Fold:
Amino acid sequence: MSDLTNDLRLAIDTGNVSFGHRSVFRTISSNSARAIVIASGGKKGVVDDIMHLCNIAGIKLIKFKGNSLELGAACGRPYSVNSLAIVEAGNSKILNEEYA
Structure:
């Protein structure tokens, strides 16, 4: 099992990632998202909508164990990140790994 934080940084540095729930909804609806990462403790309605759309579209959903500030720090961003969409994984193995 690989470390999610390292795989996230590698995907951000070498791939194509979009941040924020509006961008996540756009990538899901355009069928370009390969995986979605959500932080724990996000807004219940938004998280439920993202989870529902991922189930319908068959997109991999990864639940980050930390809150939005910790997810932002893991992504190297100076702000909170509630959700992000992996469009292209780059050199990361985030699409092939399972995270507990």
Observations:
- The helical segments are 4-14, 21-29, 44-57, 68-74.
- The mean pLDDT is 92.
- Residues 44-57 form the longest helix (14 residues).
- The beta strands are 16-19, 35-39, 60-64, 83-88.
